[in-house]
Amino acid sequence: MSRPGRDDSPDRLYTLTGGRAHATPDSPFDLVTLVVAECDPTTGMQSEHAAILRLTQQPTAVVELAAELKLPVSITKILLGDLLAAGRVSARHPRRAAVPDPDVLEQVLVGLRNL
Amino acid sequence: MDSATSEAAAEQASQPASAARTPLGATADNGLKIVVVGGFGVGKTTLVRSVSEIRPLNTEETMTRAGEHIDDISEVRGKKATTVAFDFGRITLDARNVLYLFGAPGQERFWFLWDRLFSGTLGAVVLVDTRRIDDSWYAIDRLEHHGTPFIVACNDFGGPTYAPSQIRDALDLDPQVPLLDCDARSRASGKQVLITLVEHVKKTYANQAPVRDQDTYAPHAPVSEQELTR
Q: What is the ipTM of this complex?
């Protein structure tokens, strides 16, 4: 099935990332890592990089970027890795712990009850 | 294939990508995950939509696995790729915490990608259609295997009602796993489902030793400045 609106040509994805198919296993990005632009797009920049910088003027999760760019999550992470290495974005990773912080759980409950 | 998630995909395709973007506040710095798992047509996207502050979005993750047989594969450069599509929504909880809700199919190939996508998730909601209760067995088994706290929510389709004990028996559910009825279309009901889950998560971890796994990335530690900019 081809998903409407989705460009599923592998060649395009291959070209976008210079042939890299997957983010490295130690990619620091989680689905919900919040990404923030540290600079404006410049002329001549790869269009996907420019699009990410526009989308991340406010904190934006990796998964939202993937959806907006209509790219698989793994490809989005590769593009983000390039921008992060170049200092063009910063990343706010989820505060992960072996056991969720009880304070955070309480904050989640308060937030949900206020919905 | 993934018709279970096509609803948000179709919606998304019909509008310009950024038509309804609602940016987060500048201070948001902690993303949290809850996953809604269930079979086709059980109402995952409906539940996500009823509580989300954004129109549900759709995206996908692909994993290439050399030489293994999986159903519904596409050939990419001689390797077999499995693709899982999922919908998600968002709830801003406060100035820093943002909760992402993922509606994900429960079928077999989805679980190959669980660790990549949903590690660190707070917990899961297994959404059940009591007319097709068998659809949920596999998801429950996998969640138990992954040690992910979960609750079971029965979406009300106006079919015959069953006593909770009947549903528990049919699902072979542990007594401590919360079971509730819901109406996925209702914001109040969806909210109650999420609150029930987080209360269960809280109780689950309160009953455990403080640190289970010392190898896990940054146990208990808030993200340092260094991490933020890495």
A: 0.86
